[in-house]
Amino acid sequence: MADNKAKRGGADRALIALTEKYEVAYWSKKFKVTPAKLKYAVKKVGRSAKKVEAYIKLQKHRASDKSRIALSEAYEVRYWSKRFKITPAKLKAAVAAAGHSSRKVEAYLAARKTAKKKSARKTTKKTTKKPAKRKSAA
Question: Is 45 helix (H, G, I), strand (E, B) or coil?
Answer without folding.
Answer: helix
